Amino acid sequence: MNLPPLRGSRESLVRQNERAEQDGLLRVKDQDDLATLRRQGELVALPQLISMHVDNRLAANRRYCRAWTGHFLTDLARVHYERFHKPLQVNSAVRTIEYQRHLLHINGNAAPAEGDIASPHLTGEAVDIAKKGLTPSEVAWMRAYLLPLQTAGKIDVEEEFQQSCFHISVYRSYLTPRSEETPSHRPELLASGVQ
Fold first, then answer.
1. Distance (Å, rounded) from C-alpha 168 to C-alpha 155?
2. Mean pLDDT (whole number) for 129-158
3. Backbone phi and psi for residue 180, each to the nearest 5 degrees, phi listed first
4. What are phi and psi of 154, to 5 degrees?
5. Does residue 5 fall inside a structural domain?
6. The domain containing residue 14 runs over which residues?
7. The domain that contains 122 carries what CATH number?
8. Which of 13-17, 40-44, 144-148, 186-190 is predicted least confidently?
9. Which of 15, 83, 97, 143 lies in the 20 to 30 Å Cα band around 31?
10. What tens digit of pLDDT does each residue of 67-117 get?
């Protein structure tokens, strides 16, 4: 199985923002807002796992995400590690509007800080998984793992090439039971067929 890249689109960004609104998630304005959300437990620390590490360039105060995003990362990293025996790397997680505005000045690929296509990182639902260091087999496996979750409406994926990452928005519904999934249709089983 060799799937094409999971390319993003304007429609995908609009959908990511709409889903965040439906889930009642506000964009994180600044450092004070970020600290408040952490204190309230609305944002949790990125999982600390053998199967996943965080890029050391990511600031400590931005190593947070929504609880369901943390669960997704734990699941993805565990299954990937079982298959490839090496960790995945998280390059980015939550961002503030303040930081996103700064990023726009230094990264022409960055999404806006406001509007219907604002960066989903501002809600804490989105993470970027590095493609750098992944073999072609691992990239193919990632596509095969992520596509069924996207089709089921649990996540949205934008495979980026300038920044070389999988940008993934994880929705609150990721934690709801997937009764329609039989064991043979789980993402990790579909991805296991990738060579």
1. 7
2. 96
3. -75, -10
4. -85, -25
5. no
6. 10-192
7. 3.30.1380
8. 186-190
9. 15
10. 999 999 999 999 999 999 999 999 999 999 888 887 766 776 677 567 787
